[in-house]
Amino acid sequence: MRINRLKFRADIISFNIIGYILLILFSIVCILPFWMIIVGAFTSDQYITAHGYPLWPVEFSTSSFEYILNDASAILRSYGVTIFVTVVGTFFGVLINAMAAYVLQRKDFKYRNFFSFYFFFTTLFSGGLVPWYILCAKYLNFKDNIHALILPGLVSVWNMLIIKGYLGSIPDAVTESAYIDGAGDFRIFLQIILPLSKPVIATISLFTALNYWNDWYNSMLFIQNEKLFMLQFYLYKLIGSAQGLKIAADKAGIVVENPPIQSTKMAMTIIVIGPIIFLYPFVQKYFVKGITIGAVKG
Amino acid sequence: MASFIKELKRKKVLFLMLLPAFIYILIFAYIPMAGSILAFKDFRYNLGIFKSPWVWFKNFRFFFISGDALHVTMNTFMYNLVFIVVNNFLEITFAIILSEITGRYFKKITQSTMFLPYFISWVIAGVIVYNFFNYEFGAFNGIMKSLGLPPVDVYNNANWWRVLLVFFSAWKNVGYGTIIYLSAVMGIDHEMFNAAEIDGANLYQRIRHIILPSLVPTMVLLFLLAVSNIFRGDFGLFYQLVGTNPLVYDATDIIDTYVFRSLMTSSDIGMAAAAGFYQSVMCFVTIIIVNRIVKKIQPDYALF
Q1: What's the domain range around B89?
Q2: Residues B138 and B206 in one domain
Q3: Do B139 and A54 touch (CB under 8 A)?
Q4: A6 at the B interface (CB within 8 A)?
Q5: Cβ-defined contact of B126 to A11 (cutoff 8 Å)
Q6: What 3-state DSSP class applies to B189?
Q7: Residue B19: per-residue pLDDT
Q8: What is the dihedral of CA A166, A171, A173, A178, to 10 degrees?
Q9: Domain tally for chain A?
Q10: Is B144 found in the same domain as B7?
Q11: Is the ipTM of this complex over 0.90?
């Protein structure tokens, strides 16, 4: 028995050593880029131009943030657009998905198989980018319109199926007894089913909101008007052009000699990911829960 | 039909609740599906989809004869295959490590750290690549310079991209997949562990004979989902990291970037539509075949 226990300890110790090393290495890989962005934002542009982005803080400088704050109106507007799109899109998207999911799992709904297939089939086959783009751009007036940023992510069949799977675990008796009490279908959904499915609604809302917040694709396809740029697209434009910053500053009537272009790119990145990093510790566990719910459903 | 109308009257509210999603999918999924006929037409913007003249297979002929079709298909397929293998390997490894090592807080912190890149958009990932590998200002060439080595032009080097794309796919997605596998490991009946311990199995034997076999259903499901999308590339990864750089198309052009570029830059919308239609058909055929094979081997694992 003693020898046995010793053997157990050897394997546990070696496993822990390997495990700790691998996890630490991968965690560093995951976190290092964020560290480099922060360091880059607070380094003087002269240093970056001469030596490249540093790994470690050198020649501390806040000129990048000062430069951005010279004229923050464009960023603030971009924040406004992004928040509006995220809030409106998430609210209506989750509502529409949840309503459909509820109807599809009602066992007394005669055509639920037909409609389930109607939705599910679109995950198997799609018309592809080109017809969709032409439909949106030519016929639905998406060009430079705020609904071009909201509509494309509104309904997700996968989310609908995940909600449906969760609602299936609520006993039918709940709906039936409310029915007997004289409640209508919509009231049952709103006042009984939704509160009972809070976990899945919360996680689907968070995933939907994250998708909207991180979206740049729809801006790239449909938006040319700078006033409607979402944050990610604004950043994308900024990184892509060496001169972009200068032009923005000139437009505002501010002449800056040698603007700190390289450090400003990193400072803008911080401004764009800031809210996500800030909220991450609070919402992370809901995402984990959501992934588990989705995975169990399969 | 009569029974449908009867049901419609009886369950008015339910139908109304379904209506927004129904109309949405009709407009944004089924109408574009019908619009696939564009692939067989010479699209003129002023004439619209339905009035543009038919050219039948001319668009496809261009796409295939130019050699682009084979090239972008192979790239899409190979990258996705490597992503599936590498990412799943790492996810399973980390899930097992996280479930078996000691140290509650260490686990929590590393898991949170690994999951963080999932929350970041591909635009930010593009900034990260810029920060590291920009020819003039990147940290990588900064280090090379300080070591007295010549700088490397990573952005224009196809071989670098083959590695970097795999790396960043893992960087962004492994945290997510690890959580799925970890929840599967947590679901294993602990009686089995106790029994194995009594039989004198060590930790490695436990992993080999209990944990890994229990993960097979999850592996198969994730594999199925991934394989059914093997001809659909991750547009954000390729577009935001590489951008449009003709010098490295050989290594980095996938169907999605090809379609996007043809749609946006050239006037040949017909060929873009043909390439997109080809992709949709390939995906559809793949998922049907894969699902049928799985159904034959193990019906429980089938997607539908």
Answers
A1: 71-301
A2: yes
A3: yes
A4: no
A5: no
A6: coil
A7: 97
A8: -30
A9: 2
A10: no
A11: yes
